[in-house]
């Protein structure tokens, strides 16, 4: 199973690289990696298991965070209506997005960042994302609110981008006109 020691931190230059497209169909090795990433998220959200293994809770994990420079990530969260977003995505691409922006009022964190970073991370309020699931089937998702933010955070990892790259360093809490605040 994936543990905190397996997650690389921001001092590791691998997090700044652009990850490679994954050939389809997936190899058994890639399938195992994705399943382990999804398992990490599930374990990290279970109070007993996370306590036992010292896991930090996460709603997403991108392959580069375990030093696998491939374009794949896992997401596991529920929205306010209890709708589940459990996805393991390969070669994801944003095919369209809103002009409107949104941001989490509590800011963002990252399993690869062991320090608090304050400030608003402005993201597209709505995205349409295409990719492939673990079976190589094409997936197309329309996302808004927290799921849209999480998928963009994970996609950024595949491009060597960290959440704080989006924070205005001179004015970390500035909000552009019309941006939507999201509480969670
Ligand atoms: C806040 C947290 C996450 C995404 C968006 C807002 C995920 C944190 C876990 N990860 O580091 C995943 O890359
Ligand atoms: Ni992250």
From TrEMBL:
Keywords: Hydrolase, Iron, Metal-binding, Protein biosynthesis. GO terms for biological process: translation. Fe cation binds at residues 110, 153, 157. Its cofactor is Fe(2+). The active site is at 154. Its EC number is 3.5.1.88. Binds 1 Fe(2+) ion. GO terms for molecular function: metal ion binding; peptide deformylase activity. Pfam families: Pep_deformylase. It catalyses: N-terminal N-formyl-L-methionyl-[peptide] + H2O = N-terminal L-methionyl-[peptide] + formate. It comes from the Bacteria. Removes the formyl group from the N-terminal Met of newly synthesized proteins. Requires at least a dipeptide for an efficient rate of reaction. N-terminal L-methionine is a prerequisite for activity but the enzyme has broad specificity at other positions. HAMAP family: Pep_deformylase. NCBIfam families: pept_deformyl (TIGR00079). Belongs to the polypeptide deformylase family. This is Peptide deformylase.
């Amino acid at each position: 199973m994936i543990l905190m020691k397996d997650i690389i931190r921001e001092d590791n230059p691998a997090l700044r690289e652009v990850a490679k497209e994954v050939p389809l169909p997936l190899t058994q090795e890639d399938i195992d990696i994705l399943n382990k990433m999804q398992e990490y998220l599930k374990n990290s959200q279970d109070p007993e298991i996370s306590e036992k293994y010292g896991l930090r809770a996460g709603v997403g994990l991108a392959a580069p965070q375990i030093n696998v420079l491939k374009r794949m990530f896992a997401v596991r969260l529920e929205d306010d209506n209890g709708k589940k977003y459990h996805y393991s995505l390969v070669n994801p691409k944003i095919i369209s997005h809103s002009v409107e922006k949104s941001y989490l009022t509590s800011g963002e964190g990252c399993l690869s960042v062991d320090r608090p970073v304050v400030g608003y991370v402005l993201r597209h309020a709505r995205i349409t994302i295409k990719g492939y699931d673990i079976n190589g089937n094409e997936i197309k998702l329309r996302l808004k609110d927290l799921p849209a933010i999480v998928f963009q955070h994970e996609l950024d990892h595949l491009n060597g981008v960290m959440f704080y790259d989006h924070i205005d360093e001179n004015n970390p809490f500035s909000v552009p006109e019309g941006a939507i605040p999201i509480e969670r």
